[in-house]
Specification:
About 35% of the residues lie in helices and about 30% in strands. With about 150 residues, it is an alpha+beta fold. It is globular and about 45 Å long.
Amino acid sequence: MATDESRRTKRGPQAILLPATPEHLSVIHAFLESEVPPEFRGALSRIKTAMEELLMNIFYHAYEIKGEGKAQISCRLVDLDGAPFFRVGVCDWGRPYNPLAETPRPDLRANVETRPIGGLGIHIVRKVTAHYCYSRNQDANELELFFAPPAE
């Protein structure tokens, strides 16, 4: 009899495509909850936080007309140099933009009242992921986030 883990491995990557609007965050969170394998459950809050930060940027900045675009979220287990990771991909068809490279690193020592608005969400994404990468393929921005299994 196949275990849940072997079924997950056999069915391959999963993805959803939704309108790029904040109203769909609960659907995305439910999707992530259903796709995170048992060995990565302890990382679920980090995964959801990172995804929410990236998606809010897409929802508000990727498309010229708010609500006109789409966002695709995909999940799968991957092996990087012999170690397991949970990969979450985010794809949008908005203007070219790599938030991981183009968002300045915030000065965390600066006074909250004088610090410029923005940049903390991407800082959080960088901190909670084991690895991340961006690519522009045809007309799409593709971000990949890799999460290590939580320490026991």
